[in-house]
Amino acid sequence: MKKLLMIGAILLAPVFANAAGGPSVPLDHIKTDPTNQQSLQRGMQLYANYCLGCHSAQYQRYERAADDIGIPHDLLSEHLIFSDQKIGEQMTNAMDPDQAKAWFGAPPPDLTNEVNLRGADWVYTYLRSFYVDESRPYGVNNVVFPSVGMPNVLAELQGIQRKGCGQVAKLDDSGNTVVDPLTGKAMTAQSCDVLVVDQGTGSMSVEEFDQAAYDLTNFMAYMSKPYLQDSKSIGIKVIFFLLFMTLVFYFLYVEFWRDIKKKH
Ligand code: HEC
Question: Ligand 1: distance of its center to the CA of 55 in Å?
Fold first, then answer.
């Protein structure tokens, strides 16, 4: 019994560790889609333009990404590689980690694995959660990553986002919206953590920016599991193979028993 309890405690340890380090704010939920090539192409374009200068993706080769998400090699070389790198190389940059630490307080981590590490919901919410905070070195803070060292590099698209007061959907302890039992409608509550964009300060509408953040996260999710599509199609082939072999073995079985029955 003691042993069982010990094993249980060891198995559960990561769950509690996660709970302790997890975000205290509710995350917006998205469903990444490795088959949506247009979204992945837009995501890669955003990544190359807005992120790669600081964040390498050193386990990802340009060429593999181009083939997986359907970008012709010449287009990718021309429009998405800004250094003198070749298409067969990894998506790295020339940032010196020590200098970066001096500039931002922390070096920008490599993001090839980020979605495995934090989850797609976290990344998606993070990218949309920068807000003006004059007390920070770059004038912005982030709701899901307080005191983050990263500037709001997508501000020209999103616009200037501030924290203000307003009505938000009321959530229960597990993060689900609370429904009024009388009216059947979702209940709201007053909150002063509402993020609002100053109108006309960004080149995108709120919906367009959400889509851009989704595309970026989708591309990062692809980088985290570049084999996902392959493993699905291999999985289907394996199942067909097994079904086929079942048929073969069934006929073999019938054949064997025919001989055995004859003898008796
Ligand atoms: C000017 C440099 C710079 C650019 C450009 C930049 N970042 Fe960052 N980013 C940082 C720094 C610095 C950190 C580390 C912050 C810290 O630890 O305080 C960071 C942190 C992050 C993290 C959190 C990493 C973690 O700890 O889990 C994510 C996710 C991220 N960036 C995504 C992006 C994406 C996506 C883009 C492109 C839209 C981008 N960043 C562009 C500098 C940058």
Answer: 7
